[in-house]
Write a structure and sequence with these properties.
This protein is of the alpha+beta class. The chain has helices spanning 5-129, 134-174, 182-198, 218-236, 269-272, 292-303; strands at residues 178-181, 203-208, 213-216, 244-252, 255-262, 307-313, 317-325. The protein binds adenosine-5'-triphosphate and magnesium ion.
């Protein structure tokens, strides 16, 4: 049975309507897609900008960390240069002091030797001129004995100074590890410091156990000790004071304890907590750099594997306690030239 034509009309109308709806939907989703694309484009360019900025700040960071690395390297070099400079300054002071000290006995010896020569020439002339008078010979013998004995004692003094200075100076420059007896070595350092003490009324004594031997760095030890004594002379006393500076050496288990003390003005609490800080000084106006105790601290704790402590009471004096192990760790006995 065939359908009536109105049926077809209706169906066509409905189809046309659906096509319109579909077209509208298509248009709408086309618009949505375009909008989405726009947002995506915006987001993409934003993302690109963020990535660019990130890359920029990454390269800035890289540059900064490179700068920092360079600064750290520079600081490390500067620190070791400063340590070296301080070592050389201490050595320079020592050389100047010892040179000055040696000058006196050598000067006396030269004067005595030239007196002896003059007197010998006079004696020779008198001998050529005729028979020698007994009184002249006696006079000559007296002068000769006096000058010879003065020359001998003065040259001995100069020799002693050179000897102690040589050991201390060589140790400071060579900075090598070796075995050394602590108390006798302190006594040698005291002799090489005597030029600095000579024009003061202070006395420096060394007491304690004579037999303790350290296998460590005598150069570092000498530098620390020199710094402590120099500090007492610079900071602890008013002019003309009669101070007593003392080193005492004792063994405590497998460590040696060197206690250094002065009976000077002492260090107030606020200063005491900072004395080991680099560049901390209360004597900048007198040429202090504030490196002496910082370097001493580093030498004791790093090079000598020990400890340095300070105690002080204002008006009573200051003590530095060095605790140093008898044997350094990290060295086998086969590495040790003297074991
Ligand atoms: N024995 C002492 N008595 C009193 N004060 C001291 C003594 N030793 C150190 N000080 C104080 O500690 C500070 C730091 O000492 P440090 O040796 O580091 O520097 P400095 O002696 O001032 O300068 P530098 O040693 O570099 O010439 C000194 O400025 C001083 O105030
Ligand atoms: Mg100092």
């Amino acid at each position: 049975m065939s359908r009536p034509p109105e049926d077809y009309d209706l169906e066509i109308k409905q189809l046309a309507k659906q096509i319109r709806i579909l077209r509208k939907q298509l248009e709408r989703s086309e618009k949505d897609r375009a909008k989405l694309e726009d947002t995506n484009r915006i987001k993409e360019s934003l993302l690109k900008r963020v990535i660019c900025e990130l890359q920029d700040s990454q390269s800035v960071l890289e540059r900064k960390s490179l700068d920092l690395e360079q600064a750290v390297t520079k600081l490390t070099t500067m620190q070791s240069e400063l340590v070296e400079a301080e070592k050389m300054a201490a050595l320079g002071g020592l050389v100047a002091g010892v040179a000055h000290e040696i000058n006196t006995p050598v000067g006396i010896s030269i004067t005595m030797a030239s007196t002896l020569m003059d007197e010998t020439q006079l004696l020779l002339k008198a001998l050529e001129a005729g028979p020698l008078r007994r009184s002249l010979l006696n006079h000559y013998l007296q002068v000769a004995e006096e000058s010879a004995s003065l020359i001998l004692s003065n040259l001995n003094r100069a020799g002693e100074l050179v000897q102690s200075f040589k050991q201390v100076a060589v140790d400071q420059v060579a900075s090598e590890r070796r075995r050394f007896a602590v108390k006798p070595y302190l006594e040698e350092i005291a002799v090489s410091l005597s030029p600095q003490l000579k024009y003061t009324a202070h006395r420096l004594t060394v007491t304690g156990n004579d037999t303790i031997v350290l296998n460590n760095y005598p150069g570092a030890f000498a530098q620390v000790v020199t710094n402590l004594v120099t500090n007492s002379l610079t900071h602890a006393y008013p002019p003309q004071a009669q101070g007593h500076l003392q080193f005492d050496v004792q063994q405590c288990g497998d460590q040696v304890v060197v206690q250094y003390s002065d009976d000077g003005c002492g260090i107030p609490e606020a200063v005491l907590s900072r004395v080991f800080d680099p560049f901390f000084t209360t004597a900048r106006d007198r040429g202090g750099t504030g490196l002496g105790l910082h370097i001493a601290y580093n030498l004791v704790t790093q090079k000598m594997q020990g400890q340095i402590d300070v105690r002080s009471q204002v008006g009573e004096g200051t003590q530095f306690i060095l605790t140093i192990p008898l044997y350094l760790t990290g060295f086998s006995s086969s590495q040790d030239p003297e074991n």
